[in-house]
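[job 0412] stage=fold_complex status=start
inputs:
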Amino acid sequence: MVTRRVFLKSGGLALFGAGLMGGIPAFLAEAAARGKIAGPYQKRKIMVCIFQRGAMDGLMAVTPFTDRYLAEARPGLFMSPAKNASGKPLIDLDGKFGLHPAMTAFEPLFREKRLAIVHGIGSPNNTRSHFDAQDYMESGTPFNKNTSSGWLNRVAGLMGHDAVSPFRSVSLTASLPRSLYGDNPSVAISNLRDFSIQMRGIPKAVNFAAEGFEDLYDQTTSDLIGQTGKESFDAVKILQKADLQGYKPAGGAKYPGSSLGNSLKQTAQLIKMDVGLEIAFAESNGWDTHLNQGRDTGIFARNVEDLSNSIAAFWTDIEAYHDDVVVMTMTEFGRTVKQNGTAGTDHGRASCNFILGNDVNGGIVHGKVAPLAVENLEDGRDMPVTTDFRAVFSEVAERHLHISDSEALFPEWKGDKTGVMRR
Amino acid sequence: MKSFVKTLSLVFLFCSSLLLQSSFTEVPDQKASFKMPYRQAGLSQQQAAAHLLNRLAFGSLPGQVEEVVKTGLEKWVVQQLEGSLPDDSLNRLLSRYEFLQLSNAQIAQKYTTAGEVVSKAVKEGLINKDSIQNFGPQERKTFVDVYIKAHNLRLTQELYRQLIEQKILRAACSNNQLTEVLTDFWFNHFNVSIAKTSCAEFIPGYERDVIRPRVTGKFGDLLLATAKSPAMLYYLDNVRSSGSGLNENYAREVMELHTLGVDGGYSQEDVTQAARVLTGWTVYPVSQMSDNDSIEKANEARLVKGGSVRDGDFLFAANRHDKGEKTVLGVKFNNEGYQEGVRLLEMLARHPSAAAFISRKLAVRFVSDDPPQSLVEKMARTFKKTDGDIRQVLITMVSSREFWDTAAVRQKIKSPFELAISAVRGLGADFEDPYPLYAWINRMGQKVYYYPAPTGFPDKAQSWINTGALLNRMNFGLALASQRVKGTKFNLLELNHYHEPESPAAALTAYGRILLPGRDLDETVKRLSPILNDPDLNGKIEAAVKKKAAAKPDTALVSDEMSASAGKQEKGEKKEQTPASRAAENRAALVQVVGMLVGSPEFQRR
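[job 0412] stage=fold_complex status=done
writing structure:
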């Protein structure tokens, strides 16, 4: 009945590379002694996905500033790279697109050609419901509601090797996101420090429950509960070895105190612990800017500032792993070309996304954005989708994680690559 | 909401203790026309009663196994199928929930979101459009609060919170347990989600008016009622589907998930054709906030004259219906208006694939993750013979050997909701506030009412058991036992008739019997013996509690239970070895023993 993972599958448990040898759980040392862990230490490729819930206004994050239609449609929101007195200018990326001035942290990454942007990305399904669009994007099947698995869970299943630890797919959220639903074990942890038996209120000296639980779950090794229970305690021990509280980011990285910053900091911790992480998921909220979107300051500016500063801090922090890690953002749809009556924008179609990594074809705004004249818009109001999100997601997964079966990853989809990955 | 919570917390909600009394109340004698073959499967009456309480109920209350034996097992099942045992104490608890009395339209009028308030205020000219630019989050919140108060409105979050609370209270406290189990089952089968805003405010009415009254009735009635409910119409988008703008979502799911199953023998063409049959099935505008903009509020007489049908919040809008000929599963539908859809749903409910699909799903819920085909076939036969009479299908199930087989008993893994409710029931807990329990259910992986996909929560062990979730289950056990789940109160000593176990090992046996009646606890006891019988343990407990008491007299662990029974915080000075501090020492151990029981592998099974 149990066909889950093998915790100590050959392929090398990364722990050994991290100088944790002295503190590894006894079972690991045992297994190593018996030669069960074969092969040399081997680094895993890691994909970090960030879902921007609420639908980011891609036209404000990365503005086609030469487009006069956009300037006309958004008198209260439009910015240009020209320096003037009324606010900070856009960061001119290529003479056509400008990065929002609050995203200064992204500029060097773009110039170093590690950060790519895809503009006009979105779903072929034209729903403008947050719920449906997120659901479709996370299941990866934009026309089928009852796909029970999420696309990231399928990624885990298609990697061609067993998970070496319970930390292969981790969501730094309170509950598991739709993207990770499915049969391949994934774990949601909002705070790594809570991943333990919590004995609050019980004197330490008489704390026997943790030990008791471990013994209880040791009794039935053959079934699902027993096996998972053992893995839980293994995982707890791994985290116990790490000094989570006293964590010092490398390279002077300064994470914002936001929820996203915190999630990415913990992701970096997991990466450095070498616990077998391959897929990480984090969320960023507050993108549904119907009201008071702001321009160079305000809600949207704060959001993109947090997004870019969090990602940039993460990137600085994990410098030793740059060849192994790719970061990709996603959002369910974009927003209307025209500003609405309450200084914001409503639900639209295409948006843009960011991909960061050493194997990314960076320094380029990929995709196609036609002039935003009414006749070029979907339903006369929205920037049309010119790049299917699956084209980008599958390319990143295939190239970075070496997954070749894109049909199993995104059933119902066949399409061309976008060239967003260099290798 | 504030005043609501206040009144609620002023009154202790002694649901379980009242429940014990009311279950002794005589109800009209019901004779069972069936026999349950548990003896043939080698189960004693007690074990059989415990099995029933694990499957047709959310676990047993203290002493309930004996009660069911006394009532008679078959008779108890009949009572549960009837679902009409008196529930006075529960009803008193529920009377505090205003929304339970409100219609969909009243809920739509009463409950609103901060966003809606601001846009309304702009429309009404209360806020200047330009001044919105300078509206900070705090100002916005204050404005919304004031506006809501002035207009006697409430925020939708409060509605959903109350919805969750009533579900917990019913599951934990109702005497009609099977009704609650089945309401949970059918809701999940015909899932809708608060995560989808457009359908969210209809969900309270959906569970109350559509699901709950039909849980043991005819499957076809349940299907039709869900099809016509605003919650489902919005959730699966049929509300917008028309001849010129077809939306297939509902048509697909009604076949794949609600009736026939994915291999039920239909094609994509059948889906499209069924979607055409169901065009015009929409919602009668219930409020100006409804986004159903294409339908004018029209008087009913005119609607009916045009071939439209209004039934409560449901509207068949004739002008949106595709009048052309359609063929679904070989059957023709042609220009019969509303009746086309009714006929389609009847046909689906009576389809042999539906009999098998629904029977299997029930067996998965009540018997095992992989139920024997022989059982599914028996149930499906009854389903067909009785025109989908759910009550009869369930009787066939409990009358079958397979239901009682050792391969089935204690083989289901509890969902997080089932775990939480069975723990609370097992401990005979009362609620000051049911909501904090929900935070734990969510943390263990089941955000009830929010599951986004129309499939509903999966009903198999693999989907609930993973490293993080399992750890949370253990932590839930400890948190509950040490009274750290706020608002859920119980008295561990009272449970054991005020007999204080002499040792941790004795506590394990005593509370094991209470929480896991009818189970073989030998293995659990054996596993824990070395720890619990550690000669140092008692000494350690004493020393630690003394130290803790000296340093900080009022610890959460030691005082909570006492304050719960004494009704006030105890400010004890426990530097000396007093009877009170001795009791506290034992409790530190007792709490852990009970916590371990709730978090044990055995308690995860039902």
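[job 0412] summary: Chain B touches chain A through 76 residues (CB under 8 Å).
[job 0412] exit 0
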